[in-house]
Design brief:
This protein has ten helices and 18 strands. By secondary structure, it is of the alpha/beta class. The protein folds into two domains: 8-230, TIM Barrel (Alpha-Beta Barrel), CATH 3.20.20; 242-355, Elongation Factor Tu (Ef-tu), domain 3, CATH 2.40.30. Strands 1, 12, 13, 14, 15, 16, 17 and 18 form an eight-stranded mixed beta sheet that branches. Strands 8-7-6-5-4-3-2-9 form an eight-stranded parallel beta sheet. Strands 10-11 form a two-stranded antiparallel ribbon. The longest helix has 18 residues, at 169-186. It is elongated. Its cofactor is pyridoxal 5'-phosphate.
């Protein structure tokens, strides 16, 4: 059976690297756990790092975090649907919001539960996902700052999540200025300017974060050590916290060109025939993992001597050429993972999850 390894030591070292960089610039941060898809074993590893604030986009995952450690501050990081407000208020201490109607519903539910619910108002800064338009922000705040059982603790933004708009110092200065305007107008303190996610970390490392920005929400860089500006591993971090192993379940020398009438496969793809390959053969390995678990484009083969040919729902097919490493049935093949690949694997109940 295919399995995923989480390397505890490398995760700890990535966490410590980021913790030190944030401390140097007096910036607080929370860890985004949505990649773990509620896996208790991995969530416990996260908590054992000493994390005191965890963010997630699934309420059921926040519930598991509260079961494991009720003292951790939990943050719900997408707009909540009306039918889930009760559960969200129960399990999330903080939520990201951009709709007046929703915040009013949250206020009523928080009153019912006898809680004060904290919110971060999300501000639109160009990527056109969630967020209040800047020229509406003062009026927006005016309608919520006195709502009962609601405490506005921050302004936040998301970039590079939909249209690929990258963060910049200018955009973050703009966010900080919104905070100053609101504080002056309403004589109310807003503790956080939450600059965003892992994509903003290169600005922090280059000391290009405005002084007013004092909070981050970090997932991908913690788990993959990646600089999302340059798509490279940050010096001092690890890109291989996660490793996927899949077993060879068939190994045969076969023609390189299919035979018969060619039609679209179940994925809607039609194979293009390379006539130069007629009459040639290669060793093909079938692995015990497929599209139900991961899209092959998010796999990073450790062995550069083979090619991923494609996948069906439950099997991944490799071209090993002449099989110079003499792979056999029963051997395992190792892959690194991109973020979306790890997300697919962790969301799959068919792949074992281990910690080493």
């Amino acid at each position: 059976m295919a399995y995923l390894n989480l390397n505890r030591i490398k995760l700890q070292e990535n966490f410590q690297f980021l913790k030190e960089r944030f401390q140097e610039q007096n910036v607080s941060w929370g860890v985004v756990s949505k990649l773990f898809c509620g896996n208790r074993k991995f969530l416990k590893e996260l908590i054992d790092l000493g994390v005191d604030e965890i963010h997630d986009s699934r309420i059921s995952n926040l519930a598991k975090i509260k079961e494991l450690n009720p003292d951790i501050q939990t943050v719900y990081i997408k707009p909540v649907s009306k039918r889930n407000i009760s559960k969200m208020v129960k399990y999330a201490d903080v939520s990201l919001n951009s709709e007046l109607t929703t915040i009013r519903w949250i206020s009523k539910e928080a009153q019912r539960q006898g809680k004060v619910h904290k919110i971060i108002i999300m501000v639109e800064t160009g990527d056109l996902r969630e967020g209040v338009m800047g020229d509406h922000l003062v009026d927006f705040y005016a309608q919520i700052f006195e709502l009962p059982s609601i405490e506005v603790i921050g302004l936040g933004t998301n970039l590079n999540c939909l249209n690929g708009v990258m963060p910049s110092t200018d955009k973050l200065i703009q966010l900080s200025l919104y905070k100053q305007i609101i504080e002056l107008k309403f004589n109310k303190q807003i503790p956080w300017v939450s600059a965003g996610t892992s994509v903003t970390i290169p600005l922090l490392l280059n000391k290009q974060i405005p002084k007013g920005v004092n909070h981050f929400r970090v997932g991908e860089t913690l788990y993959f050590g990646v600089d999302l500006f340059e798509e490279k591993i940050i010096d001092g971090m690890h890109g291989d916290v996660f490793e996927l192993y899949a077993e060879i379940i068939e190994m045969q020398e076969k023609p390189m060109v299919p035979t018969g009438i060619i039609a679209a496969n179940p994925q809607g793809e039609t194979v293009k025939i390379d006539e130069s390959l007629f009459g040639k053969t290669s060793y093909r390995a079938i692995l015990d993992i497929g599209l139900l678990d991961v899209d092959p484009k998010y796999l990073i083969p450790e062995d550069g001597e083979f090619e991923i040919l494609g996948a069906s729902s439950d099997m991944l097919i490799l071209n090993l050429g002449e099989n110079p490493k003499n792979y056999q049935v029963g051997d395992t093949v190792k892959f690194g993972l991109k973020y979306m690949g790890a997300l697919g694997i962790l969301n799959s109940s068919y792949v074992d999850k281990l910690v080493k």
